[in-house]
Design goal:
3 domains, four-stranded antiparallel β-sheet, 18 helices
Length: 503
């Protein structure tokens, strides 16, 4: 057996494939990283632990970048050194959660007053920022997690953590989530326009310049929980005639020369024998003498009151795959232009709101499907099975949680799935059951928990009074009834996944 130094701050054990020690090696703690030669104690710790990496490095898998591979029917992330792993991560590493009125003084005392700059906001360049993020990496690892998820605040310089832990980079090129639209963010872009393409290209270029050479980058996400179809609550707040596809609702009032409007008219031309037939469905004025031309149709701004609602909705539904293809394809093409090596993760789509019409584009342009799932695993599994069947791509849950929901917690649980648990111990047990179920699924390669630290006042978005699903309280005290379970089950994730049964 020999020990081989890895880039930066890691130690890899290499041996023959039948060696159990080599089969499941762990990433060393920051303290252990300081010592180039392992002690007997370190060897025993490595042999005893199974920390998210599992398998002997293969020369042909050591590409220098994280990728995915199916091995004996089971999907895996493969790290830069060719080792299989599953991504078990945490979300909401966000400074404002440590700088709330109830914990700001304690945070500054612990990490340093320069954690906040003269403008009153997080100071990512100060000594305190590095001390703070190092502490979060340490705690994350101690709890058996190996990744920072999508919701790592953009105010944090990624250089502070990108060499210490697996992580995700987020493009956020358009606000498509329902909660964003309800709070006035938007409008939805014309995805067919040159202006939007240039916007995406600029954002991709900026992000890839930061991350394209990083060994620990899992991949790029486009945006957060896009609402491809308007939710019923949002629909009720609209005019009764407003159609249910918000992206098309944004395109139809555009000018006659806008690329989106022209693409919509091209779509109608393929569905109707002439402009008059389309106009009849959409309740457009038709001259008894001259009829109506496609050019006149393009000038129409009000499409909200169709004569034939069923036919109009069919027009819109069949246009949605065209929008999805443009959205996914544009981002994928530009990411590959500036970074040919890292994974494309698409959007973080709500699993219960996934739509069949986006899946062909996802299959074509996305390497790993990212979902957001807050329900019981049995229900989520059924939905994920359907996504995997349609795409053939591995899946990870990029944002999910359940906690001890308080009395004021909303039933649908932005910040916590209502498990019915009465105690923290019950929650911890359900966490373990869920992780075992996920890891037993051959195509499921990760889980990122929404909520790392508890929040004791209203969320930034104003949609949840409290975040009561954190492992730590706002003063960073462990909820030991839960964290003890995390420490026990999280390091087993790779081993559990290796035992997944392939149908």
């Amino acid at each position: 057996m020999k020990f081989t130094a890895k880039a930066p701050g890691r130690l890899r054990v290499t041996a023959h494939e039948n060696n159990d020690l080599a089969r499941c090696a762990r990433v060393l703690t920051p303290t252990e990283m300081k010592h180039p030669m392992p002690t007997i104690r370190t060897i025993l710790l490595i042999a005893a632990a199974t920390f998210m990496t599992c398998g002997v490095s293969r020369a042909d898998d050591a590409t220098g970048y994280i990728h995915v591979k199916q091995v004996d029917g089971v999907w895996w992330f493969i790290n830069a050194d060719g080792e299989k792993f599953v991504s078990i991560g945490v979300n909401h590493i966000e400074p404002h959660l440590w700088l709330a009125p109830y914990n700001k003084a304690a945070t500054l005392k612990k990490y340093g007053r320069d954690m906040v700059g003269p403008d009153g906001h997080f100071n990512t360049t100060g000594d305190a920022a590095k001390k703070w993020i190092d502490a979060q990496v340490k705690t994350t690892r101690e709890l058996g997690f190996n990744s920072f998820g999508k919701h790592t605040h953009p105010a944090i310089d990624p250089a502070l953590y990108q060499e210490q832990i697996y992580y995700i980079a987020s493009l956020d090129t358009a606000p498509l989530a329902g909660w964003q639209e309800r709070h006035g963010r938007g409008p939805r872009p014309d995805v067919f326009s040159v202006d939007f393409e240039n916007h995406v290209a600029d954002r991709v270029r900026q992000l890839t310049d930061l991350h394209k050479d990083q060994r620990n980058l899992i991949g790029y996400l486009y945006t957060d929980v896009p609402s491809w179809v308007m939710g019923r609550a949002d629909q009720m707040q609209q005019n009764n005639t407003t159609m249910i596809y918000p992206w098309i609702n944004a395109i139809l009032p555009l000018g006659e020369s806008s690329p989106g409007k022209l693409r919509w008219l091209q779509h109608l031309k393929q569905r109707y024998p002439n402009a008059e037939a389309a106009a009849k469905v959409w309740n457009m004025p038709v001259s008894p003498t001259y009829g109506i031309s496609w050019k006149e149709m393009a000038r129409q701004m009000n499409w909200s009151d169709p004569t034939d609602v069923a036919a109009a909705k069919k027009d819109m539904l069949t246009f949605m795959p065209i929008i999805a293809e443009q959205w996914y394809g544009l981002h994928a093409r530009l990411i590959r232009k500036f970074d040919p090596n890292h994974l494309i993760l698409g959007d973080k789509n709500m699993v219960m709101w996934h739509y069949d019409f986006i899946l062909p584009a996802v299959k074509k342009h996305v390497d790993v499907v990212c979902v957001q799932a807050y329900g019981p695993w049995e229900k989520d599994r059924e939905l994920c099975d359907s996504i995997y069947s349609a795409t053939g791509k591995p899946i990870f849950n990029g944002d999910g949680c359940f906690g001890l929901a308080g009395p004021n917690q909303q039933e649908w649980g932005v910040k916590g799935y209502r498990t019915g648990a009465k105690t923290i111990e019950d929650v911890a047990a359900k966490y373990e059951d869920m992780l075992r179920g996920m890891m037993a699924t051959p195509y499921y390669i990760g889980w990122h928990h929404c909520g790392y630290i508890e929040q004791w006042d209203e969320a930034e978005r104003g949609d949840s009074p409290r975040n009561e699903n954190g492992f730590l309280d706002p003063l960073e005290q462990h909820r030991t009834q839960w964290t003890n379970v995390l420490k026990a089950i999280n390091p087993k994730a790779a081993k559990l996944h290796a035992a997944a049964k392939v149908d």
